[in-house]
Please model this.
Amino acid sequence: MVAGAGVVGLGTAMLLAADGHQVTVLERDPEPPPADPVDAWERWNRPGVNQFRLPHAFLAGFRGVLDAELPEVSSALLAAGALRQRFVGELLPDTATGGWREGDERYALLTGRRSVLEAVFAAQAESTSGITVRRGTSVAGLVSATSATPGVPHVQGVRTKAGEFVRADLVVDMTGRRSALPDWLEAIGARRPAEELEDSGFVYYGRHFQSADGSVPVPVGPAVINWGTITSLTLSADNGTWAIGLVTGSKDKAMRPLRDLARWEAVVRSLPLIAHWLDGTPLEERIQVMGRLEDRWRDFVVDGRPVATGVVAVADSWACSNPANGRGASIGMLHGLTLRDVLRAVGPDNPGAFTQAFYAQTTATVEPWYRATLATDRFRLGEIESGIDGEAYDPQDPQYELQKALGAASRVDPDCLRAVLDIALVLKAPDEVFSDEGLRAKTLRLGSDWRQEEPLGPNRRELLALVAEP
Model:
């Protein structure tokens, strides 16, 4: 049983069904997705998904899983108008990439509005043999059975808010950032998982646009650009639509007027690489704002013992971080693939061994991505807070120096550019990239002067003037 019918929950359900598992998906939100992309955007309400109206993309890490494991979903996404964009040979000039190389096909992503992409996933999952999707069914807690491991509660299913018992050999919590799994575990006598929790430190202000002819803006810079104390995010989407987002520090009270249309637009127009993205018809009457998000990680094996068997946490229910990097879906799908593979190797009929194996594999293959994302976020928050105070940020951290040097080197060297893409698109974790001593040396040689680069866009004083009261 999978709790949560988001994109990754449905994708994981399809991976499991393809292996012969019978999967029941329970989703709290009652409204089914419309089949038509226009209706999905205009009519579908998903209060359980924070970022439903904000920029969205499936990075290469996610897209690669779809192509290899669920190609019918990739085809359906394209048929619904999603864009498949290649960085090498399409978005980036040959002068930057050095021309096409074998393997560059991996640098492709799929983009679209979240409502349209999720509607496609829903339709594909509901037509997949072995999957039953029940919307409007909220999980209220776990139901325990005789322990499979002495002293460790075993889960045999869930209890819904309507009082129904839904039995399952394995309960997969994919309810996302708001997951109540620790409370559910405690209610059946289990230990709470170990947890790291803090405010993510960011606020998001976004808006979607559409062209009259189905075209999308030509990118003249990266999708994510740091401009001093703010960050911009620009993403092409489906059917001639696109999104612009501005990200600020949550403590930066001076930027809160960005929720006002006129001030948000004034700031976007001041950013030279993305101002032309405003040249379209807005699809929303107001700025979409998202904040009060948390960075959270949970460990369900404490002191060498699982807190419970028969239940696992996957994707954002296990660990979640700043959505601005766009990595959440890719990390989540990697986690779903990890679950599928461990079930192949161990199976739920040996609950103790399965639980230990799943969390060991999670630690080895998925957690490095969470840790790398968290480190990047902390560095970015440090830059923002230092910029607000008018100071240079210098954490005296070799990881930070490497990250900034690689960004600078990528603008002059095709190898470093591909290394940036490998990390940004969730293909290779930073530790794997920098295990190449030659690349590491080249990065430091070509990018060591990154502090000398001239900043683009408004400085802090000019930015404050743009968002000030008229």
